[in-house]
Design goal:
Enzyme class: transferase
Helix content: 55-70%
Strand content: under 5%
Biased composition (Basic and acidic residues): 440-453
GO molecular function: phosphatidylglycerol-prolipoprotein diacylglyceryl transferase activity
Radius of gyration: 48 Å
Order of helices and strands: HEEHHHHHEEHHEEHHHHHH
Number of strands: 6
Pfam families: LGT
Strand order of the largest sheet: 1-2
GO biological process, one term: lipoprotein biosynthetic process
Number of domains: 3
Largest sheet: 2 strands, antiparallel
């Protein structure tokens, strides 16, 4: 008898040390049901968007971008998560005694994270194309928020009394009601679990793992500047590592191959893919990253002031000269303020008008310079005109007799040899040009003048 009393006391102490499960997970507000599972997902999404937007702005992005893209990513993610769950656990919704309509009842639980990430990424890509931003830097910004959202969302499994592991007597084991324990294909609780009420809280393990992972992603991203999609790759690698280990504890119905659950193989493939991406993109911390399709990364690029006016500079013309992604946000903000102050001072200097006296003196000096140049030009023209006049004065005029003889000779030539007008015109023009050259050329001595005559 004393032995039975000790056993009963041990059982009572063990149950008091376990985690109790809620008696209900839905409340009705009039005709509208409020489900704890959906509430946890909504809270997780809000936290993820809030944190992701803060990180995106810290990288130099536009505020509100993550919210706009979440409008695409969240619905796609929910549909993808439900599709993955229904496809991999089709026996729960299709077959004899099953109702396919239950596949649409998402509030009963059942979201596959792999499908949620896959279709959620597709929705995010579509949203990025609409906003004109690149997917890789956005994924890096939202990765810690996704992990944090999973940490919150897993508590929806606690409200539904699902996602638990093998029987356990640990102080943190979770209590599961008889109606929620593992069942066979006919919906009857399996005999080996009929008398076992406490199990490993695998939902809690995954929640804590995701919480730690979110902190690690933020820390590692700052320490090693994990850009170009590497923060998101680290998230995938970290989550799949923890999920693969947790899958070994679960006992809910699932497809198995070679003694391992399907989710274990999926975790292994995801981990290898993420590790390969990190390896192939190692050393990119010093490579500048573009946040959108048209502009290089530059903090507050749209607000860079133009020293010559009030119109902002085109961000495409503000090429960074160094990798700014590794600069802390505080230093970037201070640099932007200093640049704005310098530009404002330059604009103020350019706007200052010259003093009236200085302007008058400058005008007087300019007028004096113009008058001096005009006077020098007049003197130079007078000096050049004197040799021409002297040369014309020294050239003797031809005699009347010689002029008459010349005229008679020309008349005889014209009468004997008719010459076309077109042929004589060039010769006459050449003689005229020679005469003008002789008149302009200064004559130095009498001999030269006589020879030319």
């Amino acid at each position: 008898m004393p032995k039975k009393g000790r056993e009963r006391g041990n059982v009572t102490g063990m149950l008091l040390a376990s985690i109790p499960s809620p008696s209900q997970g839905v409340w009705h507000l009039g005709p509208f049901p409020l489900r704890a599972y959906a509430l946890m997902i909504i809270i997780g999404v809000i936290v993820a968007v809030w944190l992701g937007d803060r990180r995106w702005v810290a990288k130099g992005g536009e505020p509100g971008t993550v919210i706009d893209i979440a409008v695409w990513a969240v619905p796609f993610g929910l549909v993808g998560g439900r599709l993955y769950h229904v496809v991999t656990d089709y026996q729960m919704y299709f077959g004899e005694g099953r109702d396919p309509i239950d596949a649409l009842k998402i509030w009963h639980g059942g979201l596959g994270i792999w499908g949620a990430i896959a279709l959620g990424a597709l929705g995010a890509w579509l949203g990025c194309r609409q906003k004109g931003v690149r997917l890789a830097p956005l994924a890096d910004a939202v990765a810690p928020g996704i992990a944090l959202a999973q940490a919150i969302g897993r508590w929806g499994n606690w409200w539904n009394q699902e996602l638990y592991g093998r029987p356990s007597t640990l102080p943190w084991a979770v209590e599961i009601d008889l109606a929620h324990r593992p069942k066979d294909s006919f919906g009857v609780v399996k005999p080996e679990f009929a008398d076992v009420s406490t199990y490993h809280p695998t939902f809690l393990y995954e929640s804590l793992w995701c919480l730690v992972l979110a902190v690690v992603l933020i820390w590692a991203g700052k320490k090693w500047n994990l850009n170009h999609g590497r923060t998101f790759a680290l998230y995938v690698a970290g989550y799949t590592l923890g999920r693969g280990c947790i899958e070994l504890l679960r006992i809910d119905n699932a497809h198995e191959f070679l003694g391992l659950r399907l989710n274990t193989y999926t975790s292994l493939v995801g981990f290898l893919a993420a590790a390969a991406y990190l390896y192939l993109n190692r050393g990119k911390g010093s490579v500048p990253e573009r946040l959108d399709d048209g502009h290089s990364y530059f903090p507050d690029a749209d607000a860079v002031p133009d020293p010559e006016g009030d119109k902002p500079l085109d961000p495409a013309d503000t090429e960074p000269t160094e990798d700014l992604s590794a600069v802390p946000p505080e230093e970037r903000a201070r640099a932007a303020e200093e640049a704005a102050a310098t530009a404002e001072a330059a604009r103020a200097d350019a706007a200052e008008e010259p003093d009236a006296e200085e302007a008058e003196e400058a005008g007087t000096d300019a007028k004096a310079e113009v008058d001096a140049e005009a006077e020098d030009q007049a003197v130079a023209e007078d000096d050049a005109e004197e040799p021409r006049e002297e040369a014309k004065a020294e050239v003797p005029a031809p005699s009347a007799e010689s002029g008459a003889d010349t005229a008679d000779a020309e008349a005889d030539d014209e009468a004997s040899e008719p010459v076309a007008a077109g042929a004589t015109a060039p010769a006459e023009d050449a003689d005229a040009e020679d005469a003008e050259d002789d008149a302009e050329r200064p004559v130095d001595d009498d001999a030269a003048v006589k020879d030319r005559a």
